[in-house]
Amino acid sequence: MNQLNEAAIETDVVIVGAGPAGLFAVFELGLLDIKCHVIDILPRAGGQCSELYPEKPIYDIPGIPEVTGQGLTDSLLKQIEPFHPTFHFNEMVESLTSLGTAEKPSFRLTTDAGKVFHARVVFIAAGGGSFQPKKPPIPTIEQYEGKSVFYAVRRMEDFRDRDVVIVGGGDSALDWTLNLQPIAKSLTLVHRRDAFRAAPHSVSAMQDLVKAGKISFRLGQITTIEGADGQLSHATLKGNDGVEEKISCHRLMPFFGLTMKLGPVAEWGLQLNENLIPVDTEKFETSHPGIFAVGDINYYPGKLKLILSGFHEGALAAQKAHRYIFPDKKLLFQYTTSSTNLQKKLGVS
Amino acid sequence: MVKMSFDDTAVRYGAEPGGGAPTKVKITFVDSSGQARTVEGEVGSTVMETARRNDIPQIAAECGGACACATCHVYVDEKWTEKAGKASQMEEDMLDFAFDVKPNSRLCCQITVRPELDGLVVQTPAQQG
User: Fold this and answer.
1) In CATH terms, are A2-131+259-346 and A135-256 the same topology?
2) Residue B52: inside a domain, yes or no?
3) Relative to the CA of A11, which of A223, A340, B18, B72 has its CA 20 to 30 Å away?
4) Which domain holds residue B55?
């Protein structure tokens, strides 16, 4: 019972994942007066649409001949505005535990940022899993992760007066080069080529620092690292010319973009089928009552990983969610074109 | 990790292999331990799609061919680099997210299978993502 007394965010539904399937679920649940909190590990909504192909056109959204990943995300956000979902970005749901029964489910969710949610129903719309930093194939790197190898900066002070090595040529690599240079003892930027896929002003600021002798830029890659007790001392820099050199390195930050990993979902006690969550095709409910899975993460015979499938699945799952959340209310099927009740909810009547 | 199934793609959009004049070429994927597998690729598809259709495990292709993830990284065999062509600017940018990039590195979702690539050999890296 102790768990019930903690400061938790109370909500009807927690949606795990703010990609198109999760966003449209907000809409379908909202039409049924169900309130949602949406949690995503990325810093913004859109999931794969905004992370993998923001500028690429999608041609198979019904009624929209062509839209970019970002365009679709923006439209969905506008569409769900009337329902005021609360977003929690940069957070990953770590644990999901059941507090209720099959007839009256309820759940406790915790995130890696320490938030606790109590929800009646959970929608897992986690797509291909969570986007996590790619880890370079440097032997023993995992022994240093979180201690002297970092994929993100949590505390700038960890870098003060240290020999810092940053690997990569994108915005993250350049932003942290510029931000950490003033406090680091030394900073070496390592990249495979003398071209950068980053904001032009960051590139020129970095080049100015190189010219002024304040940072060092090296063409090549880091191949091995050494140290003790999680603390790095040196790294081997292999130049593009093949020459290897040992450099002092207390802090290493590799920036190789993101990759999708199933992540903690695998530990929530749900039945899994090759990293996908089996659901029925009437309610899109998982093996656990009250937990639904919609979009690319679910599996059923005939499943197609299309955005439009995720939309359909969310609509049907919302119907069953309504029965859990309002067990005494009869659900009347209505159309947004004709129902003044629904139009009022949408703010258009 | 959830991977796209390109067999599904072909089926759901009716992209029956072959069409009028079936043209196939042989493509060999050699993994980092030296093990080689030769498969048939359809002219007009990509080397990445060929790999996924034939379950070449070292080609993850997380983004499904959008040139957005760098998980279909290959080293084009020296004899084939000219015929396979050079990486575009966008592809070069995306190669920044691949590991151990070499002068013959390509993202194989950006290599279209053409008749003159019959016999193409590519090596897959030790780690994609």
Assistant:
1) yes
2) yes
3) A340
4) 6-13+22-123
| Residue A10 structure tokens | 């109370």
Cα–Cα distance measured from residue A216 to residue A163, given in angstroms and rounded to the nearest whole number:
11
Chain B: residue whose CA lies nearest to A197: B93
In A103-162, the residues whose Cβ lies within 8 Å of chain B are: 127-129, 134, 136-137
Contact B8 A56 (CB under 8 A): no
Contact B1 A256 (CB under 8 A): no
Reported ipTM: the value is: 0.78
Question: Which candidate in A50, A52, A191, A222 is best for mutational testing of the B interface (most B CBs within 10 A)?
Answer: A52
Number of domains in chain B: 1
Q: Does domain A2-131+259-346 have CATH number 3.30.70.360?
A: no
Residue B1 lies in a domain: no
Would you list the domain boundaries of chain A? Answer: 2-131+259-346, 135-256
Q: Which two tokens stand for residue A328?
A: 């005494």
Residue B128 lies in a domain: no
Which is the CATH superfamily of the domain at A135-256?
FAD/NAD(P)-binding domain (3.50.50.60)
What's the order of all strands across the beta sheet hosting A216-228? A244-248, A231-239, A216-228, A186-191, A163-167, A251-254
Cβ contacts of A93 within 8 Å, gap of 6 or more: A14, A16, A39, A109, A110, A111, A264
Burial of A13 (0-12, 13-18, 19+ CB in 10 A): buried
Whose tokens are 């005939």? That residue is A302
Place of tokens 């949408």: A346
Give the domain CATH number at B33.
3.10.20.30
Per-residue pLDDT of chain A (349 residues; tens, 9 = 90+): 445 456 899 999 999 999 999 999 999 999 999 999 999 999 999 999 998 888 889 999 999 999 999 999 999 999 999 999 999 999 999 999 999 999 999 999 999 999 999 999 999 999 989 888 999 999 999 999 999 999 988 789 999 999 999 999 999 999 999 999 999 999 999 999 999 999 999 999 999 999 999 999 999 999 999 999 999 999 999 999 999 999 999 999 999 998 888 889 999 999 998 889 999 999 999 999 999 999 999 999 999 999 999 999 999 999 999 999 999 999 989 999 999 999 999 999 7
* Residues of A in Cβ contact (< 8 Å) with B99: 134, 136-137, 256
